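User: Hi! I'm working on a homework problem where we have to compare a predicted structure to a textbook description. Could you give me the structure for the chain below?
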Amino acid sequence: MTAELTRGQNHPLPGARLEIRVSAGTPVVAGATLGDENGTVHGVEGVAHPGAPTLPGLEVSRQAAADHRLAVDLDAMPDTVHRVSVLLALPAGGSGPARFGAVAAPFVAVTGLDGDEVASYTLTGLEAESAVVALELYRRQGAWKVRAVGQGYAGGLAELFADQKLSQAHQLAGSIHEAVASGLARSIPAPPAAAPAHRPDHGATPRTGPGGTGGPVAPTSPYDSQGAPGPGPQTPGAPGQHGAQQPYAGGPDGPIAPGEEPATAGQPSAPAGGRPIDYSHPRRQTAAPPPPPPAAPPAAPGQPARPVAGDATGWSMEERLYNQVWGMFEDLARTTAAYRSAVDFADSRMEKELDQALSDPRNRIGGQGDAAREAARGRHAQLVSQAREVLDRDVAQLVAEAEVVEPALPAAFARWDNPVWHAYRVPMEIPMAVRLGDLHLPEADRVRVPMLIRLPLERGLWIDSGRSASLDGSFADSHEMRRLGLETAVAHAARLLAVYPAGEFTVHVIDPAGSGAQALAPLVQSGVLAAPPAQGAAGAADVLARLTQRVDLVQMALRGGAPDALPPGLDTSQQLLIVNDFPHGFDDRAVNQLRYLADEGPAVGVHLMMVADREESAGFGPLLDPLWRSLLRLTPVADDHLADPWVGHAWTYEPPLVPPGSQVLQQVLAQVAAARRSWGR
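Assistant: Happy to help. Predicted structure tokens:
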């Protein structure tokens, strides 16, 4: 199975003879450097490039091309070589792009001689860089591993070589570009891009903020508690991968519109110079690599282009829809930020004008003071009205886009009431992401943005059963909240089971007091659970012991460079543990085991989903705090506790519950159970 790496992640290499395959949307220069234990390159003779393509154990391409295959024989490397850094650079002086942020994200894969991929890495998060260290093959305790690096350099090859302590950095960079220029006529051109459809609100300007990218972006999960976007690689990276490297990217990154001044506190977001401001986020692109997106229907003159499902970048319809949903998410976040900023400016301006009017003694006599106050209120209303018109325009465009995107979503991205579930079949491949609910803002309640989380999960889930009142004013007692929390957990577990191939996802349940029998009935009756729900302290201890042992075994195998050396019969599928009614039936040892699973489990395919009320668990004190922090908090009722990674709005989250009276959950689980039986699981 291919390891899809994120920035900084490593993976053992199974053999010495390898190929490194590079795919980019434009001709790039591929090369490699041979460094010592510290990564230092001792002279130009340690660099393989188009002018000197062959070194002991290494051969690179002789020209710039959109696709490369680098041959590597690690056994033939000199003993002094401990790091092989694979670098990519854009040709200098030509008519092509000058920065990686203007092209699709390059893709690098390490394969065996038989073509089977060992590890792959998509270099997202690049912007002004013209050279990048993509991968690093490094020697550790006699074994070789690969690490995803993704370190870019705006100064190009000269800065890259200087960073590796090469004294002749500028001379070597110049000679490489000269060698590339002499053979540029032989380079493979990039495939022609499809003509982008005209979208007034979604321009094709690459992202201009820190960590932006002009190519497909795959953020994993930037959602975090309000005001605290998750930590980066995930990304984005990960996707991160909407920022530096993800899965968790955070913070505003770039102007609201190319060529326009961003609306910030103290500045109006009204049109500047009579021109309308484009509030779409700068990263959105419509030119996708093959297969091309469907063409947009022609629009009437003066009218915005009709939205089309899948018009974002991506190599498949699933990836294009994923990126389009993320684009809608960012569009709505930024246009709402501009509106709020304009309203704040109007409020502060009116207060200042009112203070000036009251401080002038002349305005205290006659009607001059009333006139000044009325004029200030009128200017305030005008500014707010202008900002609202812009927001309504952008929201209307997003509503139209959502109306065409939602019906086109695959099952993993779709709501439970989407007709796609009526044609559900157990998939053969793991999707990019899964939908865990909907998000919306109070200023744009008509737009529901799917909350997509990358797979496999990189952090567990905490279904908070302790909140007694939802945003709509309804009230639920503690028993009702626990029931709703477990039903929400069952809906999440059923969706995860449905989007994984048969036998690739296993669910365990701990229900110490047996209080969740009714809510767990769909999972129990369909037969998709690995075993009946564990009850009592002994049952909980047994499940926790088995899962912690599995984490230990897989970690030891990976660290020892022998991922296949696992005990016979060990279930290698992804594991999910649902814990209900916590903390009843759990002692300090069990809590430590849960913390261990939450921290170490996701990296080796063991995930935790807790249904709990934190206030009821306060007796564990500081022992419990790291557990809560490591889990993504979701709620069984609408709540505004999640923040976006761009401006930090408080988004209202709505859980993906099954419509009342619907049998879709039972039908889907029945197919999953039948597929598992056919595979002997």
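For your comparison, note the following. The chain is about 30% helix and 20% strand. The first helix runs from residue 156 to 163. Good luck with the assignment!
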